[in-house]
Amino acid sequence: MKFHDDRIWECACGDGVMAEIIQKYNKYVICTDLYDYGYGEFGIDFLKTEKRLANTIITNPPFKLAEQFIIHAYEIGINTMALLLKLSFLEGQKRKKLFSVLPPKEILVFSKRLTMTRNGEPSRNGGMIAFAWYIWEFGYKGRPQIGWI
User: Fold this and answer.
1) How far, CA to CA in Å, does 53 sit from each of 8, 46, 56, 57?
2) Do residues 141 and 104 make contact, with C-beta atoms less than 8 angstroms apart?
3) pLDDT tens-digit profile of 37-49?
4) pLDDT the model gives residue 122
5) Domains (range + CATH), the chain
6) What pTM was computed for the model?
7) What is the pLDDT of residues 108-149, one digit of tens each?
8) Contact between 110 and 85 (Cβ < 8 Å)
9) How far is residue 32's CA from residue 47's CA, in Å, rounded to a whole number?
10) CA distance 125 to 115
11) Which of 35, 46, 57, 67, CA to CA, is 20 to 30 A from 79?
């Protein structure tokens, strides 16, 4: 994934793990979250924000709110967004409708299962769920490109 913007909004920053990785690529990261995980500015509900803090979002949103994150990002004028989501996010009639209106430009599937952490502690079960990066360039019309990382 290459993003041309130097300012990235991590709008569900949690404990900051993703934000710190993004910063290593010389990007300025605006970090917000609804809850206080000890990193970034908390008390900011992305789904209620009325203006964008950057043109690009990179985040791992709560899975049950991912569709709302996509729609809201589009509504507030975000240009580019990358969401780390379960591969199973591709499934479902409701998402088929969403993808027909707001298709991702690219889907990058992890060839190895990720070991996720919670509050810095790795999962006891290791990587059991398949993940992918879903990348939107809002205004893109066409079929998503699929690749593997």
Assistant:
1) 8, 10, 9, 9
2) no
3) 999 999 999 999 9
4) 60
5) 7-148 (3.40.50.150)
6) 0.90
7) 999 988 877 665 566 666 568 899 999 999 999 999 999 999
8) no
9) 12
10) 8
11) 35
